[in-house]
Amino acid sequence: MAGAPAVDGKGLPEIDRLIHEPSRLSIMANLYVIDSADFVFLLNRTDMTNGNLSSHMSRLTGAGYVEERKEFVGRKPRTMYKLTDAGRKAFEGYREAMLTALEG
Amino acid sequence: MDVMDLGEVESRAYGTRSENGVLDIVIGAGLLGYGLLAHIGAYLVPSYCLGLALLLNRLVVVPRVGRVRFAANRRARERMGIVLIALLILLPLPIGLAVFFADRLSGLTGFVSANLTIALGLSIALGMSVVAWAKSAGRFFVFAVMALVNFAGAQFSAQSLPWPMIATGAPIIAVGIILIARFAMKNPVQRAEAA
What we know:
The complex is a heterodimer of chains A (104) and B (195). Chain A is built from 5 helices and 3 strands. The relative contact order of chain A is 0.22. With 104 residues, chain A is of the alpha+beta class. Chain B has one domain. Helix content of chain B is 76%, strand content 2%. In chain B, helix 4 packs antiparallel against helix 7 (116-134), helix 5 crosses helix 6 (107-114) and helix 8 runs antiparallel to helix 9. Classes of the chains: A alpha+beta (104), B mainly alpha (195). The interface between A and B is medium-sized, with 29 and 27 residues. Strand 1 of chain A pairs antiparallel with strand 1 of chain B.
């Protein structure tokens, strides 16, 4: 687990807002418990639309939390996603911060 | 208190791959195949089961739920399950060979020969229990009990071996068909990755 979470000016632990958004939290949680998954699997697990999931994945890959690998199966594109070490640490830190905030 | 139950998230994610009925259909078809083809070509059963599993996975499961690779602990559990099932299949082999080739049946070989049907039922029930554990699918424990009851019944009523196989395989395949139909209805193939 990550170390003690940083505290903001109000004495509450700092929450990673990139992860805190419910859709991205769902993506991060799913990728945290599995090794890797493709776009269709995440669509099913998160109940998002294609465009929504694409945009959230772009933000997470942009932040370095998720790595993507594109490949073609026949003529169909397939993108596999996997949490990076930074993403794994960020998610653990987020859980810790939430626990601290809620339990005091 | 846990902020998010990750165990629940994992088991739901895993459930999309294990609750689709494919394994039920393949195991049911295997037993049914051995029962129906016992005298003409039972050696074909493993290859048609493998083909059926690959076909159902490719045509029904992957287009609906996508591809996923589970974490190391889940894969280790599945590997252990495969090893245990292989042992359950391989261990009785020397005993079976001894039964067939021994001039005088005595001791364990004699016992197994006299109780071949129930010994096979026990082996199948243990295999089902391993599947239940490895795939976190409790219904396979019920199938294990059903196999044991069918094979014990056949042993005591002196029925031939194909009958308990058919009586066990048919309900399992029926459960598998119900599960795969529910799975297909719940997960339509309307969503594909944009190029």
